[in-house]
Write a structure and sequence with these properties.
By secondary structure, this protein is mostly helical. The chain has two domains: 77 residues, Orthogonal Bundle (Helicase, Ruva Protein, domain 3); 165 residues, Up-down Bundle (Methane Monooxygenase Hydroxylase, Chain G, domain 1). 48% of the residues lie in helices and 4% in strands. It contains ten helices and three strands, in the order H-H-H-H-H-E-E-H-H-H-H-E-H. A three-stranded antiparallel β-sheet has the order 2-1-3. The longest helix is centred in the last third of the chain and has 28 residues. The protein is globular and about 65 Å long. It binds zinc ion.
Amino acid sequence: MLDPALLRPGRFDRRVVVDRPDVKGRFEILKVHTHDKIPLAPDVDLEVIARGTPGFAGADLANLCNEAALLAARTSKKWVEMIDFENAKDKVYMGGERRSMVMSDEDKRDTAYHEAGHAVVAACIPGADPVHKVTIIPRGRALGVTWQLPERDKYSSTSEFMEGQIAIMMGGRVAEETFFNRLSTGAANDIERATTTARNMVCNYGMSEKLGPLSFGQGDHEIFLGRDISQRRDFSEDTARVIDAEVHDIVMRNYQRAKNIIEEKRDRLIAIAESLLVRETLDSKDVTLLMEGGTLPPKSNPTMPPQSSDIGGADPGYKPALNPA
Ligand code: ZN
């Protein structure tokens, strides 16, 4: 955030917008960060990694390469394998695992059903990004994560897609209600994001039928040192009331949609939640199989990747000591 005073005419003569890289850009960035520095196993395909990391910025990709090298070094591998990149991706995206955190069985169950709620709704909404991974291993500040990954780079969203996202966010809360008949604080972040999305749809993207294609700015992009902090509102009290009603309406109709889906797919949700309690993490293949009514093969001896403790990420200056073959 720059002081508006710095941006007065004559100070800077141009602005260069650096967008997040597309798949080709990510491939080139990955090449830069692995070239010379990191010995790669023959199974590593940078193009696959680039395709699987939409939304990652250059710094995320640098971090990804560093993390992958650290994971490989920790098991004294002589090179970095594809699985190390896969695990590093989870860590960069979702935060480090907090295996040290002790969760009661009850908390685990709550989390498993909550995440299964997200996953089931995500799997049932046409056009939603596919579920990439569901986990009940605590990461960062979250007790569990359902990670959707778009199939390709996306540059804009439709109202349909955004409403779907809201329904998916509501899935966690609905599952808690349905199976435990109680409300928990675990859904706070989902609720906040759903409300923000709905408000943006109404106020910024003109997606409300009642209000039409108008922008109802909150004037919050020029906040500097407390000035403007009392929000400038350039619409009337009446409009404000309509906005609130519209936001409420969008969230509630998608809450209902999530509820209908979960009622209908109740047994699938139980299957996913119970599998999560056994395996802790399910990938997209597992979720698809369970959604189709299948059962997962018995749990083979899981080779959990070594994970660092919960504090902080990798030291970016660290050069992993790997001995190339
Ligand atoms: Zn959630």
